[in-house]
Amino acid sequence: EEAEATTHAEPGQKYNTLLVTCEDGLRVITLNRPSKKNAITKEMYNEWAAALEEATADPKTVVTAITGAGDYYCSGNDLSNFMNIKPEDMQQMALDARDLLKNFVASFIDFPKPLVAVVNGPAVGVSVTILGMFDAVYASDKATFNTPFSALGQSPEGCSSYIFPKIMGYTRASELLLFNKKVTAHQAKELGLVTEVFPNDALQSEVWPKLQAYAKLPVKSLVYSKALTRQTELETLHKINAAECERLAERWVSDDCVNAIMNFFNRKK
Amino acid sequence: EEAEATTHAEPGQKYNTLLVTCEDGLRVITLNRPSKKNAITKEMYNEWAAALEEATADPKTVVTAITGAGDYYCSGNDLSNFMNIKPEDMQQMALDARDLLKNFVASFIDFPKPLVAVVNGPAVGVSVTILGMFDAVYASDKATFNTPFSALGQSPEGCSSYIFPKIMGYTRASELLLFNKKVTAHQAKELGLVTEVFPNDALQSEVWPKLQAYAKLPVKSLVYSKALTRQTELETLHKINAAECERLAERWVSDDCVNAIMNFFNRKK
Amino acid sequence: EEAEATTHAEPGQKYNTLLVTCEDGLRVITLNRPSKKNAITKEMYNEWAAALEEATADPKTVVTAITGAGDYYCSGNDLSNFMNIKPEDMQQMALDARDLLKNFVASFIDFPKPLVAVVNGPAVGVSVTILGMFDAVYASDKATFNTPFSALGQSPEGCSSYIFPKIMGYTRASELLLFNKKVTAHQAKELGLVTEVFPNDALQSEVWPKLQAYAKLPVKSLVYSKALTRQTELETLHKINAAECERLAERWVSDDCVNAIMNFFNRKK
Description:
disordered N terminus; globular; homotrimer; 11 helices
């Protein structure tokens, strides 16, 4: 079985931005652009969605985990996705990005097997908002969670506009979704977004054996149980996703957003 | 009034598996199979539902409390319900059990008066899942909460597949509903399933006076207020209940479940 | 800009029961009947709703905050609204009060910009229940939260019968909505009703700079983001509001309520 794991992780695999392994029912998808803090390029959006489809299709996969290579979990949308676009191409870029994001988020809404995040470091933007759809989120105490939408002239995605108020109430969700509040792992646990927090040194040694045990459970009971928990919301979540992406397509070409992103890159110079 | 309480609790009452008393507006239903950790037999399912109907019908009953005799609150479904069934009777047994469970859970969905659990010790399975429909859950610090559905090849009931994610989010509910996590009373309070935790020695002396006070409140305000809190969900909860029971009817005759239950009894030998 | 603030706060403004200022995008509505613990008279219901309309219409207003003058945040419905009513006018009074309340609550459901409460002291009744619709609730550690509906023969309003169970679960919401439990600011934070608690001495110095910063964010991103978080619930909330107010119109003329209010005034003598 070690041989099999090695096989799956060996060079020549189909993803440029991800590492994917599968052993004894546990599939691990590692975001693998550590030098870029695992920022999500267009390629990574597509590969991540494809990796979830692969997990769905593989009968040997029981539990799927997402984690990040290096110190970051994921720094969110790679803002270089917005660079070097000619003014006349802006509108089309926004529509393309809308469809890309909608498909990406839909792959989480529809993912039928248990999905767990192992948040090894800071998480930003869409990598945070989609966590509300995961079945468990285990976080290092060095992880932080930041969704700076209005600071960038944007608006929420990942169905967070629906799921965050559901679990936190409007009174707490709005700090994250409207007011750009960055929270610690312990605060995110209080908010119901994180399942459990581990000391950074213990995260790997504590979480993986737990997930290996989950992966030995009967897959039909897991899939059917997850389906029960989602049955009343699937349609709602797809509608929310569409509305969020439509709004972002408008935001991305707005002065609010264009100015904020220009300021971001000017600060980096 | 003490005389009346004695009258209600005296031998000759109509239930074999429950003790029922009613005094000054406070009705107490005690699960009374302490030698079996108050495991729920077919008879107890029916008697518990009947006792709720009686509470609804009695104009003197304002608040109804559920508690367990002995050290356990309730060890869940009595697995002997699954024993000594001939292979050719399995399918019918599953359909009968589905109907039994659906009616039992429906009696909680529709119960119109305040309903409080006094969780005196460990709670397992359906005795945990239905707690999400109670108006308050007061627990001993020796209580634990365990819903080992997938470990037994089964799936959630008691509308927990809807109510647990509603109050905890998917990220926390799935640990209980998919991954068999047993939680302490304090953890269950953090999750929103338990209202308040008491030191085991103080549970009885603290909780009953509180419930006696609640039972003096105007019953119409309580009933109308509870109806307001449930109005948007009644139909949803009945649909969820039906879907959960339908899935269990399939699970109970699956290899996953049959093997898990055989292993359970073999371990006990 | 100080001049502008002074202008807005100067005497001669249009409200008798409120102070309203607006500076650099931050509008502050202060409940201003400190000698009556900011109890809400009929006039204040109407002025508060009008002040929200004014905030909506003013293009310079980005964030709106509500706070109370003096030691109280708000002691809820002024029970003198129920006084000196002739028996033959009771029914009409109840219908008028129903419409007044429904319009008041609707102005919070529909308010499109970020809305924040700065709870400087005790909060009672409808001033508590509407908090579930706010985008943030910052509270002094001297604040308390009390909704004594059934003790007064009444029932919940402010959409709390829907929003409180959504964020707390039935098991915790019912203590507030059915059983008259008064909670501290820290308890209200645990319940998800309060966003953050500040030492009373630090409340003013900590909260206002935070809100001034929020008021500099791009208003379109805030308004569109808030709209996304509310889109699935607007219709539901208006239905809940109507059902709650209809029930209260019945409660206000009930013996339960009339007796409770008579007892209240007798105790005060």
